[in-house]
Design brief:
152 residues; CBS-domain
């Protein structure tokens, strides 16, 4: 079974960090440059939260704030579910579903920030191991029905 450690090992090292004092405008510019939907908010080596496009739309735009005078600390998400390196992809899927979250924060055994697991990371794992996820008999039955025209 694939674990958080496996998923993080397959990802590039994170370079999408900002400090809590970063202005939202600058954070949005970075998001645009790196083409990601979130930034990791760090103060030195300490994880503080995640700033995402969703935070921007819900906590800046909808609340009438201005991105050139609001800091990331004011609008970032700090209640992101946490996982450890030994947790499985299945456990990650359950946590994301349970918390309605697109992100999980991973910590190592020493409780140091290790990375972020995204819904896209989980989807890639499911797709790469679809044989382990989907029942072959059911999948073949669906293919046969589609070829036979029985599917509406």
């Amino acid at each position: 079974m694939r674990t958080v450690k496996n998923v993080l090992a397959s990802k590039a090292k994170p370079f999408n960090n900002v400090t809590p004092q970063t202005l939202v405008f600058d954070a949005l510019s970075l998001l645009n440059t790196i083409n990601l939907s979130y930034l990791v908010v760090m103060e030195g080596e300490v994880f503080k939260g995640i700033f995402s496009e969703r935070d921007y739309s819900r906590k800046v735009i909808l609340q009438g704030r201005h991105s050139d005078s609001t800091t990331v600390a004011e609008v970032m998400s700090t209640d992101v579910p946490m996982v450890n390196m030994a947790d499985t992809v299945e456990q990650c899927m359950h946590l994301m579903n349970q918390h309605k979250s697109r992100y999980l924060v991973a910590f190592d055994l020493d409780e140091n920030f290790a990375g972020v697991i995204t819904i896209h990371d989980i989807l890639r794992q499911v797709i790469s191991s679809k044989e382990d996820v989907f029942d072959r008999t059911l999948a073949q039955k669906l293919v046969d029905e589609e070829e036979g025209g029985d599917v509406y």
